[in-house]
């Protein structure tokens, strides 16, 4: 079975439609509200123009208003009770406000449903991506894509896309009614339309790369902050607060400066746009006044025309911005599509897996890097223990990651019970291989919950049993809340040794046929190390164990030992065989045995 599979290849439009599933009905209702609102907005100026010309003035009532006039008892009644028209205008305004509320409510409701779907899809997909993908991408950048880019898409759909529809309808209705009111003034307005829309479109298209640069700068800033918060203990321990603050402030200056440039140019756009709008209105007023004086245009029609022009100006200015923001949303969709189109792991069904472990000429290198392991071959008999010794960067932990199927091999094969793990599902491999890593990462939950993560349905007695085997039960019971003690983010309230032992207890809950201890006792003293090994030795009979450690005393009891140097096996054999050989292993052994015990604890504990 393949370990990864192609996720559905999302196009930008296809992904947007996928995100919109479940909210299209609400968006449709908001669009209907938008249509009614726009219709009422263009109706009110007509009523005002009728009042000026026919009720206040002496113009003849056109056939379009005959029904309205008869509804109120005739023109004379309206002249005597002009406040009735004011009430109609107020009523129309209230109905317009109602539809505006409906538009906003249904748009935001639909938007929240879409946002939830986007977040759920992204998080679920990220959980299924291979570990190699996560190592190739900065956490801060991924978080930025899942927050800022998601917000950019949300703002576009709920704001710009709905606005675009309203703009198109408003421009179409306003221009149509302008031409019906006075063709001459409408031609003047139309002459300015390409200039305003064209300037807006070109301006925001030119501004788009700067918006993209802002997104990139924000991603870098998020990465710096995330690394600093994660490594806060190291920062404090080495007194690097000032350097880290300076690093953050420098990037913050770049980010802020980029936004200031964007805002400065945006301010220039609106100023220039206002000048074009004012020039357009000036021409309309000049020619409109002339037409009124010579009797070819009524005062009411001029007021109506100016009202429509006012309704038209905003959409004209916004049209270019919306078109540009479509491109900006397209960039955000593209960045999210990079995540959504990444190959997922096919987790598959868990099947029984046990037997001898065989590394056959295994070579591994991270993406476009120097090989971390080169031509590594060894066999671990089922139920026995392999000790792995080596310096920093020798490839010890990489063996653990490869055996757990966390990375694909560059070349060679790894088999368990004669089955090539690259052809097995991750569920099968990880169901058979348990990890205890050096870091001892804990979630921000209680100690009991952290131990039971691998077996959520476990009884309290099982949790306590695992804690006893890891020699951490006494420490837990010393806390006032016992197993209900909250450990804080990343287990910050526990010591390094306590975290490692809780991690051991957590892994023991899985009862896997293969266990890997990756320097998982580095933070405990030698006495506790020996106690844990003694308890585990009895409990883990029949389990295949790989012990990675910097301490010879931790691995020397293994049935087989390998010594790694620069990604290759330098020595291989039992403790006695390697001591007789007088090579690297013996040198390390003699050096460690010569170090006083209290100094060992200071160095390693």
TrEMBL record:
InterPro entries: AAA+_ATPase, ABC1_TM_dom, ABC1_TM_sf, ABC_transporter-like_ATP-bd, ABC_transporter-like_CS, P-loop_NTPase, Type_1_exporter. Residues 357-591 form the ABC transporter domain. One of its GO terms (molecular function) is ATP binding. The chain crosses the membrane at residues 20-44, 82-101, 161-180, 186-208, 267-290, 302-319. SUPFAM superfamilies: ABC transporter transmembrane region (SSF90123), P-loop containing nucleoside triphosphate hydrolases (SSF52540). It is a multi-pass membrane protein. One of its GO terms (cellular component) is plasma membrane. Keywords: ATP-binding, Cell membrane, Membrane, Nucleotide-binding, Transmembrane, Transmembrane helix, Transport. PROSITE patterns: ABC_TM1F (PS50929), ABC_TRANSPORTER_1 (PS00211), ABC_TRANSPORTER_2 (PS50893). It is found in: Cell membrane. The keyword Transferase does not apply. Residues 28-328 form the ABC transmembrane type-1 domain. Its main location: membrane. This is ABC transporter ATP-binding protein/permease.
């Amino acid at each position: 079975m393949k370990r990864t599979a192609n996720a559905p290849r999302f196009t930008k439009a296809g992904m947007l439609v996928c995100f919109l599933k479940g909210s299209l009905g609400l968006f449709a209702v908001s669009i209907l509200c938008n249509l009614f609102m726009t219709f009422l907005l263009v109706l009110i100026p007509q009523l005002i123009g009728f009042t000026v010309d026919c009720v206040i003035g002496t113009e003849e009532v056109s056939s379009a208003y005959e029904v309205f006039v008869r509804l109120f008892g005739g023109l004379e009644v309206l002249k005597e009770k002009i406040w009735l028209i004011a009430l109609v205008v107020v009523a129309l305004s209230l109905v317009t406000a109602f539809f505006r509320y409906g538009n906003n409510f249904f748009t935001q409701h639909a938007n929240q449903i879409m946002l939830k779907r986007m977040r759920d899809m992204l998080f679920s997909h990220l959980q299924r991506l291979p570990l190699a993908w996560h190592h190739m991408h900065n956490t801060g950048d991924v978080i930025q894509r899942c927050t800022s880019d998601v917000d950019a898409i949300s703002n576009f759909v709920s704001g710009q896309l709905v606005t675009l529809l309203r703009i198109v309808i408003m421009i179409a209705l306003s221009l149509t009614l302008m031409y019906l009111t006075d063709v001459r003034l409408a031609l003047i307005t139309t002459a300015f339309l390409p200039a305003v829309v064209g300037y807006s479109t070109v301006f925001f298209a030119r501004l788009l790369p700067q918006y993209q640069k802002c997104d990139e700068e924000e991603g870098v800033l998020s990465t710096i902050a995330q690394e600093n918060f994660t490594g806060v203990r190291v920062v404090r321990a080495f007194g690097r607060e000032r350097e880290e603050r300076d690093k953050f402030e420098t990037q913050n200056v770049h980010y802020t400066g980029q936004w200031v440039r964007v805002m400065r140019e945006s301010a220039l756009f609106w100023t220039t746009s206002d000048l074009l709008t004012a020039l357009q209105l000036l021409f309309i007023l000049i020619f409109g006044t002339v037409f009124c004086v010579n009797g070819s245009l009524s005062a009411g029609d001029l007021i109506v025309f100016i009202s429509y022009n006012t309704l038209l100006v905003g959409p004209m200015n916004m049209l270019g911005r919306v078109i540009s923001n479509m491109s900006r949303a397209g960039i955000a969709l593209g960045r999210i599509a990079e995540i959504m189109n990444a190959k997922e792991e096919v987790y598959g069904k868990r099947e029984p897996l046990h037997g001898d472990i065989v590394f056959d000429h295994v070579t591994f290198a991270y993406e476009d890097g120097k090989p971390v392991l080169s031509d590594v071959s060894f066999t671990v008999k089922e139920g026995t223990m392999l000790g792995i010794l080596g310096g920093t960067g020798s490839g010890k932990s990489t063996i653990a990651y490869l055996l757990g199927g966390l990375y694909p091999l560059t070349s060679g094969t790894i088999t368990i019970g004669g089955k090539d793990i690259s052809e097995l599902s991750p569920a099968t491999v990880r169901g058979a291989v348990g990890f205890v890593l050096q870091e001892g990462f804990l979630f921000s939950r209680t100690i009991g919950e952290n131990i039971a993560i691998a077996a959520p349905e476990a009884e309290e007695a099982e949790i306590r049993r695992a804690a006893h085997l890891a020699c951490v039960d006494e420490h837990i019971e010393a806390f006032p809340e016992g197993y209900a003690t909250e450990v804080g983010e990343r287990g910050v309230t526990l010591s390094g040794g306590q975290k490692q032992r809780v991690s051991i207890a957590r892994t023991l809950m899985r009862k896997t046929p293969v266990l890997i201890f990756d320097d998982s006792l580095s933070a405990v003293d030698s006495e506790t190390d020996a106690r844990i090994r003694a308890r585990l030795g009895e409990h883990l009979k029949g389990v295949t164990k790989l012990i990675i450690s910097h301490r010879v005393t931790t691995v020397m009891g293994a049935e087989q030992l390998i010594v790694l140097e620069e990604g290759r096996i330098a020595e291989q054999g039992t403790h006695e065989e390697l001591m007789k050989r007088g090579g690297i292993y013996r040198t390390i052994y003699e050096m460690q045995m010569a170090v006083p015990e209290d100094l060992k604890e200071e160095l390693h504990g």
